[in-house]
Automatic annotation (TrEMBL):
PROSITE patterns referenced in this protein's UniProt entry, alphabetically: PTS_HPR_DOM
Keywords, alphabetical: Cytoplasm, Phosphotransferase system
Domain HPr: 1-88
Superkingdom field: Bacteria
Keyword Hydrolase in record: no
One GO term of the biological process aspect: phosphoenolpyruvate-dependent sugar phosphotransferase system
Name of the protein in question: HPr family phosphocarrier protein
SUPFAM superfamilies hit by this protein: HPr-like
One Pfam family matching this protein: PTS-HPr
Chief location category: cytoplasm
Originating species: Candidatus Acutalibacter pullicola
Length: 93
């Protein structure tokens, strides 16, 4: 298992578009992907669970991956979150 904490910077939080992008990308990996916030622990491969978790801008999340390609999955997950998940106003400042 590998894991890392990252802060969500999307102004609107983890809503449909960024959650969809994240879950679609994570489905490309064999590893299990979990996203943990102060609110919930959910599968990173489920758009509905990601949206239901209510993760907002500024929330710190822990992404953990376990499985044959866990390192690659974690690297991609962190890259997505740090880049703003395809949203204007997201990403590192």
């Amino acid at each position: 298992m590998v894991k890392k904490c990252v802060t969500l910077t999307n102004r609107e939080g983890l809503h449909v578009r960024p959650a969809g992008l994240f879950s679609n990308e994570m489905q490309k990996f064999q590893a299990e992907v979990w996203v943990s916030s102060g609110h919930a622990v959910v599968s990173g491969k489920s758009i509905m669970n990601l949206i239901a978790a209510g993760i907002q801008c500024g929330d710190q999340v822990e992404i953990s991956c376990t499985g044959p390609d866990e390192e690659e999955a974690l690297r991609r997950a962190i890259e997505l979150v740090e880049s703003g998940l395809g949203e204007a106003g997201g990403g590192r400042k």
